[in-house]
Amino acid sequence: MTHYPFRLPAGPVDLTSIETNAAPGFKGGKKKGKAALFALGDELSDLQERLFAEGRSGSERRLLLVLQGMDTSGKGGVLRHTVGLVDPQGVKITSFKAPTEEERAHDFLWRIRRQLPEAGYIGVFDRSHYEDVLIARVRELATPEEIERRYTAINDFERELVDSGTTVVKCMLHISADDQKERLLARLDKPSKHWKFNPSDIDERAQWPRYREAYEIALERTNTEHAPWFVIPSGKKWYRNLAIGRLLDDTLRGMDLQWPVADFDVEVEKKRLVDEAPLS
Amino acid sequence: MTHYPFRLPAGPVDLTSIETNAAPGFKGGKKKGKAALFALGDELSDLQERLFAEGRSGSERRLLLVLQGMDTSGKGGVLRHTVGLVDPQGVKITSFKAPTEEERAHDFLWRIRRQLPEAGYIGVFDRSHYEDVLIARVRELATPEEIERRYTAINDFERELVDSGTTVVKCMLHISADDQKERLLARLDKPSKHWKFNPSDIDERAQWPRYREAYEIALERTNTEHAPWFVIPSGKKWYRNLAIGRLLDDTLRGMDLQWPVADFDVEVEKKRLVDEAPLS
């Protein structure tokens, strides 16, 4: 696998030290970046279809892409522009909202387990079980002891996923508070974006330093070898989409996906078709 | 809405009289056809997003695209190339397989109802409740009286969908037995396509005339004003994809989708952002 400049190294995390507007590992600007993503489309589609074909032929392998990030960091943009490059039949997208009453009556991983991708699929979580150590920590929706327990529970859960055939790719879309302010103002400027805005977005933003801290702790505690974190500089939307596209592409290539071998005699079947009786 | 040469007229249906390799309403060949579909992408994406935005803002409107057709007719190709043009976040695809034991214990529409798109979504059925009057008729999986009951039940069900805000678009991907033979042979020639082939596909093909008859009856009986059938000549894959792309585009344009109007004071929110206290 390619060296990823945005692979999070082990140890304490300081998000303020990671530039959000950088484009590590890519020479070129927006135009070249968009073209590079578009050029990835055919290969990504081919790899996704191989994964799907494998799943239909008894393989247990699948891929789970976890997208986390502050409001406006571009989880939706990645879904549209990067995940949108592959056949939608092989993709299962789940957007996790505030848990329902039924969901809250269960362990925090209950609703997550119900949305895991089946064999052969690419599953994408738009927000995820990480909210249970992010907003839950900031808004004190659980006791400190419960939050503490969850970091370990998450690592165990992801270990279990990996052991049963799921490749787990976790991306934190990293923007600064200034990036967010700019994007919220841009939303307010465009009537076609007003539906995405809610006045509570600004209230939530006031908690920015506490969210950053919650992210830093979560990233450090759950940055395992089996399910590592990638912190994607997301100030430039084209770079964010491209970086995740390349990460998916490299991850799928690393799985060495092969077309399933026919479990029937190809020549016999051809002959049956060629020799068939008239259809009437 | 544009005039559709492939809108099925009322009355008895004779599929053998409908050319599968035609390209009605389009001047040009494969290259121009592919370019025309690609050129639709931005508009389709914009319309889909408006529909989605409406759904988030209280509208009950949604779209349901039903895809039916014989094996190899290209339901998967339409999903990949046409439905794949829009944001996967706003699309819910359901592939209906042979019903499970639980599903068979219920009325045939039970499992269909569970997969209907939510408000704002484009739902796509890859096979559908029509299998219950197609394979069910050919393979005698239900009594003639039950099959007879189902045509009316389908029309009532679709009426109910339309009345509650769903625009229903039903496409039959029309190929000939010769088209299918060619495609099955092509699958057998390519190792990357073997996973899509099953020897039982050839057994099923022997029932072609009975399937054609079952389609003709189903199309005639369920070709209602509220949920009409489109018979898409699907011998040319590029034309099939383009025809359905145009049909979706025209259908969405016909819905006159508007961006939701802000339910907050835009200037007040801008001011809050600009004047905010430092985030620390």
UniProtKB/TrEMBL annotation, chains A, B:
One of its GO terms (molecular function) is kinase activity. Residues 30-256 form the Polyphosphate kinase-2-related domain. Keywords: Kinase, Transferase. InterPro entries: P-loop_NTPase, Polyphosphate_phosphotransfera, PPK2-rel_1, PPK2-related. The keyword Isomerase does not apply. This is Polyphosphate kinase 2 family protein.
